[in-house]
Each structure stands twice: as C-alpha cells, then as structure tokens.
C-alpha cells in the first residue's frame, strides 16, 4: 500500500491497519483489476477484524499447513466465513527443527 512506510523505508507506519489494507484490496477488486483477493499468514483475530468491515469477503487464506502444523482453529475460522485455504509447505517445513508435537 503506498505510504505504508516512511520515506526512508526503514520504519513501518503504525497507523495503517489491516482494515485499511483490505479496503485497498477491495478497491482493486471492484475495479476488476483482480478476480479474487485474499490474505497470507493472517491470524484468526485479523481475519475476524476484516470480515467485520469487508464489503468483499476474503476469498482465500494462504498459511503454512501440514501434518505437523495443522492450525485447526484457523482452518475452522476460514470454513465459518467460506474462505478457501491454500497450504504452503504441505509436506512439512524443514526449517522447523525445534517444532514439538502436542504429545511431545
């Protein structure tokens, strides 16, 4: 989003919300510059915030999702709102060497 960073690009602005960004996405969708709009790595709280103000619903949420990181509450929240889910790292994430399963 233009203006989301200060001129020197070193410091993120704190006054730009996910709702503001979503309104920008909706503008692109309404101008037919894209067929779908979505989010990546958003929490349930961020998704709920957007859905409260959205004129155009979230079409897709892309998240890390695999056998060892199932994110069931997030997937359920997406189902509740009719949001499709796209998994990245669906066969696991080698970088998660310190990941511990709930059963230890």
UniProtKB/TrEMBL annotation:
InterPro entries: AKR, Aldo/ket_reductase_CS, NAD(P)_OxRdtase_dom_sf, NADP_OxRdtase_dom. This is NADP-dependent oxidoreductase domain-containing protein. Residues 15-94 form the NADP-dependent oxidoreductase domain. It holds the Pfam family Aldo_ket_red. Coiled coil: none annotated. GO terms for molecular function: oxidoreductase activity. It comes from the Eukaryota.
